[in-house]
Amino acid sequence: MDLIGVVFPRRCPICDGVLKFNKEKICDNCKNKITIIKEPRCMKCSKPLDNEVSEYCYDCQNKKHNFISGIALMEHNGLVAKSLYKIKYNNKREYIDYYVEEFCKYHSKEVKSWNAQVLIPIPLHFLRKRKRGYNQAELIAKKLGKELGIPYCNSLLKRSKNTKPQKELNDKDRKKNLKNAFFVPKDKIKNLPESVILVDDIYTTGATIDECSKVLLKAGCKEIYFITLTIGNGY
């Protein structure tokens, strides 16, 4: 018997209700309230598209990204947005298990086809990580790595600036905010993998993924992909 599960029962990542022992990682009621992004979706960033004629979203048609492509599991709105907020700021780390399980259910085959050598979580500045107690991107990458059979490493990319939260800025200021915010440690450059997957919880405009991709490409990586749990539904 799983005594930990008895004493500390798993909770639904959407409503936080106690789940039935040894059942699914989301309650039946909430399962019908969320939507997995399916086709048609942008071939670059995975954002859902309104029609099957377009291959790319408005943003990816008009912006040159530094990554090859990526996959987001769900749109970042409503109940899912609140759930990820709780993961990030209310220490609801157990919710990650549900999102990772769902991601692998739908996208493990495509991710493995990338033949990437390592998962790299988007780093937090050490001051913010110390205050929060953890980096949610690291936890996601670690769990994804275990399920996908791809190693994860949190030492290949570091954050040198304690930047303002991106959600408070417009697209132009987001780029300025992230300039020179990341670096690859000198002792890691020589053996840096050629193909990597960046991992984060949310993709909004792609500014963070793009800046990290730029730094990794400059350091010697050849192919950059990304995985996020959610993606914004704007342009």
Helix percent reads 25-40%
Strand count, sense and barrel status of the largest sheet are: 4 strands, parallel
Choose one word for the global shape: globular
Order of helices and strands: HHHEHHEHHEHEHEHE
State the end-to-end distance. Answer: 49 Å
**Biggest sheet: strands side by side, in what order?**
1-6-5-2
Write a brief caption for the model.
Helices cover 38% and strands 14% of the residues.
Q: What would you say this structure looks like, in words?
A:
- There is one protein chain.
- This protein is an alpha/beta fold and 235 residues long.
- It is 38% helix and 14% strand.
- The chain has ten helices and six strands.
- It has helices spanning 3-7, 28-31, 58-62, 78-89, 96-113, 126-132, 136-148, 171-178, 186-189, 207-219, and strands at residues 69-75, 118-121, 158-159, 182-183, 195-203, 223-231.
- The strands form two sheets. It has a four-stranded parallel beta sheet, sandwiched between helices.
- The protein is globular.
- Mean pLDDT is 91; it is low at 1-5.
Key words describing this protein structure:
single chain, 235 residues, alpha/beta, four-stranded parallel beta sheet, two-stranded antiparallel ribbon, 14% strand, disordered N terminus
